[in-house]
Amino acid sequence: MRHGKTINHLGRTASHRNAMLSNMASSLIMHKRVTTTVAKAKALRKFVEPLLTKAKSDTTHSRRLVFSVLENKETLKELFGTVSAKIGTRPGGYTRIIKLSENRLGDNAEMCIIELVDFNETLLASKTAVEAKATTTRRSRGKKKADAPAGEAVAPAAVVETAAPADTATTMVEEGETRDEAKADEEAAS
């Protein structure tokens, strides 16, 4: 009976599955993003997140434990170097799965991108912009007014108005006439 055994076998033997997940984890650590199927990405997430947690403490023991799984020195250097420095303050959830709209052409499998959360520069930039915009809330605005002395009036925000650009002259082009001829006729008339 298989009660409580929730691992996705991915249609492979245990040795094949472990080798595949080890290689995918190495690729994810080196390239920070991998495109794969949703089932493999979910299995990879369970496989790689404990390794990333072990990498947060740079000890000989944790290096040996991670190396026994990954078996790649370059990946180990990258993991304990740049990756562990970025994920050091994060309490968990180091990966993100983004489902793609198009399925794989051959077998119609659902495709996705699995990436390390702290290495997506566009999302990090938009997140900091949203945080900067959300610094003023109702409570903080009310607090600022309360902090201002009673005798001083709060000046309204300046309004900048810009004039619309002047209309450009248009020339009417008759049938069979070129633009240059129409322009020359209009200049001669004025």
UniProtKB/TrEMBL annotation:
InterPro entries: Ribosomal_bL17, Ribosomal_bL17_sf
Residue ranges with Low complexity bias: 148-171
Annotated region (Disordered), positions in chain: 131-190
Keywords: Ribonucleoprotein, Ribosomal protein
Superkingdom: Bacteria
Source species of the chain: Hymenobacter wooponensis
Quaternary structure annotation from Swiss-Prot or TrEMBL: Part of the 50S ribosomal subunit. Contacts protein L32.
Gene: rplQ
Biased composition (Basic and acidic residues): 179-190
Pfam families, per the entry: Ribosomal_L17
HAMAP family, alphabetized: Ribosomal_bL17
An example Gene Ontology CC term for this record: cytosolic large ribosomal subunit
Similarity remark: Belongs to the bacterial ribosomal protein bL17 family.
UniProt lineage: Bacteria, Pseudomonadati, Bacteroidota, Cytophagia, Cytophagales
Descriptive protein name: Large ribosomal subunit protein bL17
GO biological process: translation
NCBIfam families listed in its UniProt record: L17 (TIGR00059)
Gene3D superfamilies assigned: Ribosomal protein L17 (3.90.1030.10)
Listed GO MF terms: structural constituent of ribosome
Keyword Ribosomal protein: yes
